[in-house]
Specification:
By secondary structure, the chain is mainly alpha-helical. Helix content is 46%, strand content 0%. The protein has one helix and no strands.
Amino acid sequence: MKKPVVIGLAIAAIVAVIAGGTWWYQSRQDDGLTLYGNVDIRTVNISFRVGGRLAS
């Protein structure tokens, strides 16, 4: 094979290895848990006029 063809194939192989490695690295990263939605928080203060336990 001629020298320019060998150099071209070597460059193509290096680019393919770098692209494959980058894709593999990106697919292996753990981005953690991502949740979407709303959070409803309600605070209720219950008070009684007379202290003590409730009789049922």
